[in-house]
Design a protein that fits this description.
Layout: H1 25-55, H2 61-89, H3 97-103, H4 116-143, H5 147-171
Length: 179
């Protein structure tokens, strides 16, 4: 179903980018909007994780440095898949850092110094937030019979939960589950 002939200006897409789909323009718009927010959050979380990777210090430096590097790579790996999924559906995706800043729901951390345990806890909470957002997007996909995006999100939810678990375990007090 072509979206190029839609009368609403904000829903119009260049004929050169009008990917054919059997989904309604409304479904494409809702899912694309949701995925673009997840994409903005992925970029924000990637940069925050890299920031903490670059600035971690202390006695667990080596372990945390490596874990955060691994996690940032995994987060970055989701960005292309999310953006390409938007295009496969016939939507358009992020075009600038400014657009990322407008859409992201993950808060930046510009502090000069963050204690290592606080870094891990903050990233743990951010990953929990993203997992919850992915679940909402998954429900939207289910409601619109978009199994392709739902399947992709299921994988990303599992990866996000794994990061959350690792951050929790690395940040908890010795012999305690306390925050």
């Amino acid at each position: 179903m072509s979206k190029a002939k839609n009368d609403q200006k904000h829903d119009r897409i260049s004929p050169d980018l009008d990917t054919p789909t059997d989904m309604s323009p409304e479904a494409v718009n809702k899912i694309s909007t949701s995925l673009n927010t997840l994409l903005a959050d992925a970029f924000a979380l990637y940069l925050k994780t890299k920031n903490f990777h670059w600035h971690v210090s202390g006695r667990h430096f080596h372990d945390y440095h490596l874990m955060l590097d691994e996690q940032s790579d995994a987060i970055f790996a989701t960005t292309d898949q999310l953006a390409e999924r938007v295009r496969k559906l016939g939507g358009t995706t992020l075009k600038s850092i400014g657009q990322v800043a407008k859409l992201q729901t993950i808060k930046d951390n510009d502090e000069d110094y963050v204690p290592p345990r606080d870094m891990l806890r903050e990233l743990m909470e951010d990953n929990k937030h993203i997992a919850a957002s992915m679940r909402k997007a998954h429900k939207l996909c289910d409601d619109n019979e978009d199994s392709g995006t739902a399947g992709l999100l299921e994988t990303f939810i599992d990866e996000t939960e794994r990061r959350t678990w690792f951050l929790f375990e690395a940040s908890r007090q010795e012999g305690s589950n306390a925050a």
